[in-house]
Amino acid sequence: MTNLKNKHLLILGGDALSADIVNAARQMGVITTVIDWHPVEISPAKLLADNHYEISIKDYEAVNRLIADKKIDGVITGFTDSYLEPYAEICSQNNWPCYASTFQFRITLDKDLFKKLCRENNVPTVPQFSIDDIVENKRLPADKILIKPVDSSGSRGINLISDFSEWEEALRHSLSFSQKKEVLVEKYMDADDVSICYTIRNGVISLSAVCDRFIHKTEKFGSVTSGLIYPSRFTHRYIKDVDENVKNMFASLGLTNGVLFLQAFVDDESFYFYEMGYRLSGGRHYIFTQEENNVSALNELISFALTGEMSAEAAIHDNPLFSAYYCQLSVLCKSEKVAEIVGINELLHTPGVIDISTRIKEGDTVGQEGTTSQIVARLHLKADSIKAMDCLIEDVRSKLHIYSESGEDLIDDFFHIPMHLYEE
User: Fold this and answer.
1) Predicted confidence band at 265 (pLDDT cuts at 50, 70, 90)?
2) What sign has the CA pseudo-torsion 55, 58, 60, 63?
């Protein structure tokens, strides 16, 4: 990879996940500046950066002034959908490389447009229903349906209902999370769930990882990931059945660089795609691909931001058929104030624990159940076998405690591997 020492990188967004960008860039010798409109107390990546400022990423005049004053060489953003179009605009105004056009971002950000793209390219999707038909017939078209905003992320605004009497309230709630004031109505899928990651380098699309996704479900307000297991037990089938069509779909959209992830259900008959992101995901799969294949999409995106090129050689090493087992474990807590977090330091020295990322700190209040705001910490784990991974997760659970002011352990759901699914 090109020597980037003393290049200056602007990072849009200072949340906990963006700390990965700061740390990776600094390890590459890059000077880092983080901006967003939040104070440093709730923007933790700023504390790790060489420089940080309270500037709205949409205040282009102020951003461009900062770029000129600090002699910044490129810009990157990571994990937040709403930052992608401002990222593209800043690139455009400064003649910097951008891994996608505004049009491409809009297609991939909008769940409805994404599903239309899938159907046009023979990529199967989750069955969808007409709002007009539901209102006219005054009944639900399936036993359970999901109502979701077309342009929201983090499981926000999703409603699960099973009776028409719940329709109006659920619809109103979902619409409140949509800037476009549009929703999708889909069949509730009682099926296995997978997440798929691709990396695109100079027009070459390679499959980087496939994982089994296990979710914590709420009665009404959607679901949130509690655990990811790599490699997926469906990886071989995915490659055989749909990988080529998905690659052709993204080639038809003209994607030439970047990283993306897709989510799909799977049953005995098919895969059913329902959304994607043209950005780094909160699953931070690059931690596992770095460990397994010495390939990091995060490092490549940093290089792209500063040189306009990703690593062509890295595509050769992409291999989703991992030799070890990996788990991204999300620690979900009840929506209360956190008084004490116990066990992090001990876990950092536990064999098999690759990384720990905390999203909130002592004194903060956990966000709404059924959204990513419910996640207090994420751990990345490695083991030689699925049984060893199961034991490692139990070890983590015995050491990690998150207490409320009254002394209650706030951990609401702790992932357990359904071992029967992995038995040969």
Assistant:
1) very high
2) positive
Q: What Cα–Cα distance (Å) separates residue 222 from each residue in 140, 174, 368, 369?
A: 18, 11, 11, 9
Closest CA to 318 of 233, 236, 206, 239: 206
Distance between CA atoms of residues 298 and 387, nearest Å: 30
Q: In whole angstroms, what is the distance from residue 164 CA to residue 340 CA?
A: 43
> What's the first-to-final CA gap in the chain, in angstroms?
41
Rounded to the nearest angstrom, the gap between the alpha carbon of residue 32 and the centroid of all alpha carbons in its chain is: 23
Q: What is the pTM of this model?
A: 0.91
- 352-367 burial string, b = 16+ CB within 10 Å, else e? bbebbbbbbeeeeebb
Residues in the chain: 424
Quick one: pLDDT at residue 220?
56
Task: Please give the full DSSP string across 22-84, using - where no structure is assigned.
Answer: HHHHHHTT-EEEEEESS-GGG-THHHHSSEEEE--TT-HHHHHHHHHHHT--EEEE-S-GGGH
As a whole number of angstroms, the distance between CA 117 and CA 112 comes to 9
CB 341 within 8 A of CB 353: no
The pairing of beta strand 325-333 with beta strand 375-383: antiparallel
Per the structure block, which two tokens stand in for 186?
């889909």
**pLDDT (0 to 100) of residue 154:** 63
Q: Which two tokens stand for residue 94?
A: 């400064």
Reference 185, options 246, 242, 123, 139; nearest CA is: 139
The angle subtended at Cα 283 by Cα 41 and Cα 348, nearest 5°, is 65
Decide the pairing of beta strands 375-383 and 411-413. unpaired
Mean pLDDT of the chain: 93
Coil, helix or strand at residue 185 = strand
Structure confidence by residue, pLDDT tens digits, 279-288? 999 889 999 9
